[in-house]
Description:
It is a single chain. The protein starts with a strand and ends with a helix. Helix 8 crosses helix 10. About 35% of the residues are buried. It has 2 domains: about 90 residues, Glutaredoxin, CATH 3.40.30; about 110 residues, Glutathione S-transferase Yfyf (Class Pi), Chain A, domain 2 (Up-down Bundle). It is α+β, with helices and mostly antiparallel strands and about 210 residues long. The chain has 11 helices and 4 strands.
Amino acid sequence: MSLKIYHTPFTRSIRVVWTLEELGLPYELVHQKMDRAYFKTPEWRKINPVGKVPVFFDGEERLIESVAVTHYLAEKYGEGKLARRPADPDYGQFLQWLHFGEAGMGGYAGMLIGQTRILPEEQRLEPMKQWAIAECKNCCDFIETSLEGRDYILGEDFSLADISLGYILYLISLSGEQDRILSARTKLYLKRLTEREGWKKATARAG
């Protein structure tokens, strides 16, 4: 086993580092600063053809989709820990929340962080920001109601679905608009996630 992750702070690659820490797997962490010009170069495109992070290697196997990497790690090296199997009663919910954190929410959260943190102020568009806030709130209201009586999104047991959702909720918190988007249960849920040792170790090591 030779696991390597190229990581840039605040990006989706933290999902992979977090999963590696939760599973207790050895890995090589390659810090890659956020350099959009470099990400367009042939040198970086040889590492990641779409010019982004994360980039994960298991030997010669390369994966670039963060949620896919987390699932791959749990199934291949974690003996199913943090995942669910088809015979499990909550398998459907596991798949839904695992992918909702990216496919369902990622675009909206990305727009929000772009309009609040990434783009220069003169390039930001208030209507786009307000649209992103509304769409993020719509998704987070679904999380809020689903968390009733639960510590984690599937119940009492932490899973990859929480890692998938947790990153997006963290991104929303960085926007400065969390009070308009996150309700009480979801705020406590995010706090619970970021108090986990796996998250603390991942962010301490990865920045």
